[in-house]
Fold:
Amino acid sequence: MVDRSGLTQVLLRDRYAGAHTVDFATNKAWSAVSFRTNTRDLERATRPSESMSGLRHMPRATAVGGGVMVEGGGALMGGIGVSGAPGGDADHVCATAGLKAIADDLEF
Structure:
């Protein structure tokens, strides 16, 4: 999880997770916060013939499902990033389940 500035606040990793998953999950959370868009939606918006396709060449920008904005009290609070499931859609499901689990704590 990153804060609204994109700085890592919490990191959980399974000991069997691939070496790439830490950076990938962090970059997904950073991308969701930076672009104020869940990365599954960012994936669609940055496909080759779309107007935002150039974002895929930006360092850290990760346009794969699994990055979700964390909002509470009408404000962007941070982002959750998940990596390691078989595909971005499964990562997105995991990220939104985590967000749902803490939703009551986010509303002041």
